[in-house]
Every structure is written in structure tokens, then in C-alpha cells.
TrEMBL record:
CDD domains: PcpA_C_like (cd08347). Residues 5-131, 156-282 form the VOC domain. It comes from the Bacteria. It comes from Virgibacillus phasianinus. One of its GO terms (molecular function) is dioxygenase activity. InterPro entries: Extradiol_RC_dioxygenase, Glyas_Bleomycin-R_OHBP_Dase, Glyas_Fos-R_dOase_dom, VOC_core. PANTHER family: RING-CLEAVING DIOXYGENASE MHQA-RELATED, RING-CLEAVING DIOXYGENASE MHQE-RELATED. Keywords: Dioxygenase, Oxidoreductase. This is Ring-cleaving dioxygenase.
Length: 326
């Protein structure tokens, strides 16, 4: 049993329309699924990804219309990165961010890679990371109809950063329960001295890393719009997911048990610093109920919710995601 890398990251937005416009128009990602939060069907769950929503490329958002401000702190997923093909692509993005007034920090270097840290309109903490030297998990493929050129586009999720009060308990979960190994570290940009620890799983590389930052000077994060809800790691199939459940039970870690999310099967648990982890299967995928050409254009409901479609559609604020077809 070995986790294959990052599966998806799920964050919070207070405005689905603004969110959709930013991630599709400015970032050029494809909306591959417009569905509902299965734990609260009165709000949207939006999935942005590569051309087909391949595992490891999904950045998803729960819409919480009255979500308050995020007060940043520990016990949080404090950074989500998105992979681009090479260093040259970052030059394109630096210019694009300036053109569209996206708050960004310019091209810098981190852990031997070129990066650009930036924020979305709700102050979501994001980073573009170059795959110039990546030899680990392969990225996805940009959508042919993206607003961004194919050789510059976002090809998947990169490293996820966790900020914790104490690294040891989280490190123990990653290395003793999950299949991560510490593969490096780099100085924090906060003071240049505190080391951020790097852990990798599977084939490693940008698509399979968790970075841990220790901050004992911060309070616990109060999440709101622009915060991250959970990170999911890739499991090959449902049989293997059942074995992961057994491993968590044997370690006496409370967990959700197997949950059918229709597009994949899931298992949830919290590590000791309170961060929500999900293990999710690679399949069956987003073309289960929509063909590849029309992904994300209509409201997709898992079968469990289909008989409530009229009620659900009435409660949702309309969001036009239909694309003109020739």
C-alpha cells in the first residue's frame, strides 16, 4: 500500500460566480464538475482541474455564502500550489497576474524550484510552481479550450503546505501511518531560520509532496472564505481504500469509514493538529455522468440526490457554466 500523491484540495468560497470567473478565465482551469456539497446540498461544490479532471489536478470549492474572514494560524492547510510546465511559463504568469491585477509576489525560488505566490479575490493562499526539473508524478494536460496557452497552463496540484504548532505529531502520521518519507527541508521566508520540512510519497516530485511549517507564535486558524477545508491523497482503488480503513482502525485513529462520493470513494480522518485528511480513489472519475466534451456545463447530481433535483435547483443561485459549442 502506497499513496500515489495529492488527489485534490478542497477550499471555501463565499461567491461561486466570482470564484468560477477567476479560476476559469484568469487561471484557465477547466470546471469539470458543477455539483453540490453532498453534506449540504443547498450549496455548490465546484471542481476545477485539467482537461479531464484527472486525479492530482483537482482544486475544489465549497460555496459557503455567508463565510466570514479567515484568521490565519496553525492547524491549517496554509498553502496550495498549482503546477505549470516550466520556468518560462512563470514569466507568462507574472505578466498575466500584473495585467489582471492579481495580488502576487513575483518569481522567486523555493526548494530549488521557481515559484510565484499569489492570492485569489478571497485571499486564498496559492502558489504556482515550475515543473522544469520535476522527475516525479507526471502532471495532467491543459484543456484545449483554456483561456491560457497549452504550454503555459496549469497541469495539476503541487505541494500542499501545512502550518502547525508542533510538527512531530503530524510527521508521525505522515511517516508511520501514511507512506510519506522526509526528503528535504528549506528555510522559512518568515525568518530564514525556521526549517520547513518536505515529505514525499509514491513517485515523489511536485505532485506528491506535503510541506510542514512550524509556527508556535500563531493562534489556531479560524477558517472562512479563502481557507482550505481538507487535502486528499490518492489511493489506487476501493479494495486498497478498505485496507487503509483497517490500518486507521488498528492505529485507533477515528475515521469516517468508507464514503461513496460517486466520482470517487473516500475515507476521512483528522491528524493530531486537527487538519482534515482524506484518502480518495483514482476512479471512477468525472465522466461517470457527463461526457468529456460537456464536463461541468450542467448541474450534476449523484444518484442519491437525483429525485430531489427540482428542490435543489430552486435553492441554488443560478450559475451559468455552459460553453458555446460549434
Amino acid at each position: 500500500m502506497e499513496l500515489k500523491g495529492i488527489h485534490h484540495v478542497s477550499a471555501l468560497t463565499a461567491n461561486a460566480k466570482q470564484n468560477y470567473d477567476f479560476y476559469t478565465t484568469i487561471l484557465g482551469m477547466r470546471l469539470v464538475k458543477k455539483t453540490i456539497n453532498q453534506d449540504d446540498p443547498s450549496v455548490y461544490h465546484l471542481f476545477y482541474a485539467d482537461e479531464a479532471g484527472n486525479p492530482g489536478t483537482d482544486l475544489t470549492f465549497f460555496e459557503i455564502p455567508h463565510a466570514g474572514t479567515t484568521y490565519q494560524g496553525t492547524g491549517s492547510i496554509s498553502g496550495t500550489s498549482l503546477r505549470v510546465p516550466d520556468d518560462k511559463a512563470l514569466e507568462f504568469w507574472e505578466s498575466r497576474f500584473s495585467e489582471f491585477d492579481v495580488d502576487h509576489d513575483g518569481i522567486k525560488e523555493q526548494y530549488g524550484r521557481k515559484i510565484i505566490s499569489f492570492r485569489d479575490p478571497e485571499r486564498q493562499r496559492l502558489m504556482l510552481v515550475s515543473d522544469e526539473a520535476n522527475i516525479g508524478v507526471k502532471g495532467g494536460k491543459t484543456w484545449v479550450h483554456s483561456s491560457v496557452p497549452a504550454d503555459k497552463g496549469i497541469i495539476g496540484l503541487g505541494p500542499v503546505k501545512l502550518t502547525v504548532k508542533s510538527a512531530a505529531p503530524t510527521t508521525a502520521i505522515l511517516t508511520e501511518i501514511l507512506t510519506f518519507k522526509q526528503t528535504g527541508s528549506y528555510p522559512s521566508i518568515i525568518d530564514g531560520q525556521n526549517e520547513i520540512l518536505v515529505f514525499s510519497t509514491g513517485e515523489g516530485g511536485t505532485g506528491a509532496e506535503v510541506h510542514i511549517e512550524t509556527r508556535d507564535d500563531l493562534p489556531k486558524e479560524r477558517p472562512g472564505r479563502g481557507s482550505v477545508h481538507h487535502v486528499a491523497f490518492r489511493v489506487d482503488n476501493e479494495d486498497e481504500l478498505a485496507k487503509w480503513k483497517d490500518r486507521l482502525v488498528a492505529a485507533r485513529l477515528p475515521n469516517s469509514g468508507l464514503v461513496d462520493r460517486f466520482y470517487f470513494k473516500s475515507l476521512y480522518f483528522r491528524e493530531p493538529n486537527g487538519i482534515l485528511f482524506e484518502l480518495a480513489t483514482d476512479g471512477p472519475g468525472f465522466n461517470t455522468d457527463e461526457d468529456d466534451e460537456h464536463l461541468g456545463e450542467s448541474l450534476a447530481l449523484p444518484p442519491l440526490f437525483e429525485d430531489r433535483r427540482k428542490e435543489i435547483e430552486t435553492n441554488l443561485k443560478p450559475l451559468d457554466t455552459k460553453r458555446p459549442h460549434n
